């Protein structure tokens, strides 16, 4: 827990990384290019709809083959219309699950990115709601 | 025309976005210290739980009726409010945030079908952040507020008003007969600005419904009651006369936010603005005899200046102990602004919101002796309000250079608080758990 006696900034906001806008070339660099240093705002690269974007933490290994590992944080954009093939956060029996959405004219299922996990298909009368579309995932590495 | 966009059962709805298992179940959110209910889901209302019901009376319903009682999570509500307000602002040109979950939008000059436009914004807010809202539209603030109440009742209590007013109600589109019927179906006490006391007096004088009040002569309202009621009567008749400064304060939260006349870039300027907003909000707070336990502040660039880099951020802070002291409130708001300010942006708007309001008398129950507002401090605030009332706003101001005092977290009793789903990296909602 962060110390609550100081204000906690609310994500998302700019996260700034310095980068050069030109590729590295051999020979004499153009002097004008020295002034073309731009900052990449990582958050604005990843987040297209700031108000609609939320973060969730995924646990378990069911999305392993999609690169979402146990403990990964996913960025979820609720402004995007879910389509078949999207990785989504869905609500199944009141809990969040992260799976691949597969829909067709006569079927709807949630598929894991790991052959060890069975597909989730709604039972009769069971409503499965897509909560949002996963647009990025973050894996933090030990340092 | 004006619109009032209002989140339904806002605190409960925020909790449900991140805890979907709460959908369809009766939920209440408890005040600081888990004292009493300050928000109720529709299901909780259906159980007969009243606003302000003390928690000990609800224990039975927790056991027998599946009621879920949660501690207030103001950091979450503040962030969700910030998101909702930004989306609601898309309805018109100007927005005035009235409370944590309500904002007035100026629709003048907006072409096309306003109901359709409102429906689109409502759908967007629901899809993007998961919060259900109701939108009331009318030619004055009082009528927009009334339209909003009608939109809510028509949705929640079928039969209370015609069903087509559910979710979105546009009083400006009703003909005289329809409008009269809607006003007739509204109790006078439910009109914005008519409190319990005045409501009772009005009923004693044969004024039972909003229609009766609308038909009262403004002169009689002024002579028999006050200028405030006179304004209410005029507003019910479609004549705008309630400015931001005259608004009756919200019961649950107080907001003071404003767009700047010109873009602001420097921290010092923002702090001046925030100090002013915080003082105004504190004044409103004292006027209604409340204390605040949690402060939120935000700064934003203009979404209409698309060529400029955009920045929007809010943060909230719990107070060491509930207070109505301008100095403490200002200091907390400034601490937030200092923390969220980034140079290089043209700021267009800033605001302060006071949350976790509670009666000033309740403070005596706290055990935090250091923080109890000393008697002379209460008198100082009284004197300041009186001077400002008499000689004009801002005659007496705080010198913002008051010695900063460390803000410590008062040991709040929050046994059932949900985590900082949007504010705490360690507190994110879990999928596949």
UniProtKB/TrEMBL annotation, chain A:
GO terms for biological process: DNA repair; regulation of DNA-templated transcription; SOS response. Keywords: Autocatalytic cleavage, DNA damage, DNA repair, Hydrolase, SOS response. GO terms for molecular function: DNA binding; hydrolase activity. It comes from the Bacteria. InterPro entries: LexA-like (IPR039418), LexA/Signal_pep-like_sf (IPR036286), LexA_repressor (IPR050077), Peptidase_S24_LexA (IPR006197), Peptidase_S24_S26A/B/C (IPR015927). Gene3D superfamilies: Umud Fragment, subunit A. The keyword Cell wall biogenesis/degradation does not apply. Coiled coil: none annotated. Belongs to the peptidase S24 family. This is Peptidase. It comes from Limnohabitans parvus II-B4.
TrEMBL record, chain B:
GO terms for cellular component: cytosol. GO terms for biological process: DNA repair; error-prone translesion synthesis; SOS response. Residues 2-195 form the UmuC domain. InterPro entries: DNA/RNA_pol_sf, DNA_pol_Y-fam_lit_finger_sf, DNA_pol_Y-fam_little_finger, DNA_polymerase-Y, DUF4113, Rev_trsase/Diguanyl_cyclase, UmuC. Pfam families: DUF4113 (PF13438), IMS (PF00817), IMS_C (PF11799). One of its GO terms (molecular function) is damaged DNA binding. Belongs to the DNA polymerase type-Y family. This is DNA polymerase V subunit UmuC. It comes from Limnohabitans parvus II-B4.
């Amino acid at each position: 827990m962060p110390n609550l006696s100081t204000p906690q900034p609310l994500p998302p906001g700019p996260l700034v990384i310095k980068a050069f806008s030109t590729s590295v070339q051999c020979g004499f660099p153009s002097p004008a290019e020295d002034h073309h240093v731009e900052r990449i705002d990582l958050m604005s690269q990843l987040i297209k709809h700031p108000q609609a974007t939320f973060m969730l933490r995924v646990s378990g290994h069911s999305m392993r083959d999609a690169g979402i590992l146990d403990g990964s944080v996913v960025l979820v954009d609720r402004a995007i219309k879910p389509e078949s093939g999207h990785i989504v956060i869905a609500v199944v029996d009141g809990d969040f699950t992260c799976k691949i959405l597969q829909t067709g004219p006569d079927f709807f299922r949630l598929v894991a990115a790991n052959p060890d996990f069975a597909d989730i298909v709604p039972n009769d009368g069971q409503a499965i709601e897509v909560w949002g579309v996963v647009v990025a995932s973050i894996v933090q590495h030990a340092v | 025309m004006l619109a009032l966009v209002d989140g339904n059962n806002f605190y409960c709805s925020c909790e449900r976005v991140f805890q979907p298992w709460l959908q369809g179940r009766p939920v209440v959110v408890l005040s600081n210290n888990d004292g009493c209910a300050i928000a109720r889901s529709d299901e909780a209302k259906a159980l007969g739980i009243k606003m302000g019901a003390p928690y000990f009376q609800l224990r039975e319903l927790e056991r027998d009726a599946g009621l879920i009682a949660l501690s207030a999570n103001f950091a979450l509500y503040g962030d969700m409010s910030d998101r909702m307000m930004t989306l609601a602002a898309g309805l018109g040109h100007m927005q005035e945030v009235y409370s944590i979950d309500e904002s007035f939008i100026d629709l003048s000059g907006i072409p096309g079908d306003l109901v359709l436009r409102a429906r689109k914004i409502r759908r967007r807010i629901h899809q993007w952040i998961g919060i259900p809202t109701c939108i009331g539209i009318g030619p004055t603030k009082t009528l927009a507020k009334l339209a909003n109440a009608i939109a809510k009742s028509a949705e929640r209590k079928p039969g209370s008003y015609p069903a087509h007013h559910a979710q979105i109600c546009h009083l400006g589109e009703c003909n005289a007969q329809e409008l009269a019927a809607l006003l007739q179906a509204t109790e006078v006490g439910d009109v914005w600005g008519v409190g319990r006391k005045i409501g009772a007096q009005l009923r004693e004088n044969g004024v039972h419904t909003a229609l009766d009040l609308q038909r009262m002569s403004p002169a009689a309202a002024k002579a028999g009651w006050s200028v405030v009621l006179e304004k209410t009567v005029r507003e019910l008749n479609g004549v705008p006369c309630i400015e931001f400064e005259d608004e009756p304060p919200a019961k649950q939260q107080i907001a003071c936010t404003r767009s700047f006349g010109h873009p602001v870039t420097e921290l010092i300027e923002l702090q001046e603005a925030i100090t002013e907003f915080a003082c105004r909000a504190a004044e409103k707070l004292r006027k209604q005899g409340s204390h605040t336990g949690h402060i939120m502040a935000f700064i934003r660039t203009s979404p209409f200046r698309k060529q400029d880099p955009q920045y929007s951020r809010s943060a909230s802070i719990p107070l060491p102990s509930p207070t109505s002291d301008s100095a403490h409130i200002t200091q907390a708001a400034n601490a937030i602004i200092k923390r969220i300010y980034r140079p290089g942006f043209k700021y267009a708007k800033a605001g302060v919101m006071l949350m976790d309001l509670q009666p000033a008398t309740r403070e005596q129950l706290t055990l935090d002796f250091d923080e109890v507002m000393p008697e002379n401090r209460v008198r100082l605030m009284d004197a300041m309000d009186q001077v400002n009332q008499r000689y004009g706003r801002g005659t007496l101001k705080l010198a913002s250079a008051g010695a900063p005092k460390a803000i410590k977290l008062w040991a709040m009793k929050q046994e059932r608080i949900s985590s900082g789903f949007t504010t705490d990296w360690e507190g994110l909602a879990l999928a596949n758990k």
